[in-house]
Amino acid sequence: MSNSGGGHLSRRALIAGAGVVAAGGLMGQERAAGASAGPSAAVRIGPGDVRYENLVRGNNFRFTGQPDEIRVATSADQVVRAVGDAVRAGRRIAVRSGGHCFENLTAAPEVRTLLDLSAMNDVGFDERRQAFSVQPGATLGQVYRALCAGWGVTIPGGGCPEVGAGGHIAGGGYGPLSRRYGAVVDHLYGVEVVVVGKDGKARVVVATREEDDPFRELWWAHTGGGGGNFGVVTKYWLRSPGGGHLLPPVPRNMVQHVVF
Ligand SMILES: Cc1cc2nc3c(=O)[nH]c(=O)nc-3n(C[C@H](O)[C@H](O)[C@H](O)COP(=O)(O)OP(=O)(O)OC[C@H]3O[C@@H](n4cnc5c(N)ncnc54)[C@H](O)[C@@H]3O)c2cc1C
């Protein structure tokens, strides 16, 4: 677990212990704030809260931010609301999923709202889009295990099982299988992402690689440029281009084995 050292509770265990409930996915192409079907607001944790010290740190203890609030979201609608609140209040936002950032991008002193998506960690298959869906808080270990056990497929991602899909996929994602299958983003079909429009309102947009998708450029912006530049990803869809396998099959043998 990311924060298991030094006697700290892990972030994931803490969130699970708080009884946060995940809400359902989105069906529409675009949904504006206020359409929440599940719990309407993300858990809000301030510096005076006993949970703050545990949640404020990511994996990299070199950098620790001092945000005014940590919002622990469990649905895209909660992310929309948290982003909308921050924009209205003029608070700079950073989003953290797996907490394995090398730099202080989520812990910069200017960050006033830290959006924690580690509890959004579902991995599944979306029949409608015929693609595997991965929420950003899923660790690579969770993704590999779910894809392997459920469907016998995998992605050519990194070897550290605790890295989060949230930052890893938008950054490209490479690992031991990359010489054979490319980077993870070569298999990225689409993203569900919370963006802020010209009107200053936060909304959910689905962007895919389909040629006629009006948001195709937004999909493209998530194929290696890194996370947090264009919006908050609340779901990735993975499907290899062309026909054949939906994703690469799991290798028959593994020379190196990671524990997760
Ligand atoms: C021990 C270790 C091993 C690694 N091994 C590999 C490897 O083998 N291959 C490889 O390709 N990379 C590897 N990396 C790099 C890793 O993929 C990146 O650091 C990645 O960005 C981490 O993602 P995260 O969600 O865990 O981190 P976070 O700290 O949560 O986020 C990292 C960045 O992505 C942004 N971000 C996170 N979630 C979202 C979201 N939902 N929407 C928008 N932006 C978001 C954050 O704002 C931040 O800028 C490794 C990193 C570490 C620390």
UniProtKB/TrEMBL annotation:
Report which residue ranges the record marks as coiled coil: none
Q: Which residues form the FAD-binding PCMH-type domain?
A: 63-243
Per UniProt, the keywords (alphabetical) are: FAD, Flavoprotein, Oxidoreductase
| Reported cofactor(s) | FAD
Tell me the PROSITE patterns matching this sequence: FAD_PCMH (PS51387), TAT (PS51318)
Cite the InterPro entries for this sequence.
FAD-bd_PCMH, FAD-bd_PCMH-like_sf, FAD-bd_PCMH_sub2, FAD-linked_Oxidoreductase, Oxid_FAD_bind_N, TAT_signal
Family classification: Belongs to the oxygen-dependent FAD-linked oxidoreductase family.
Protein name, please? Answer: FAD-binding PCMH-type domain-containing protein
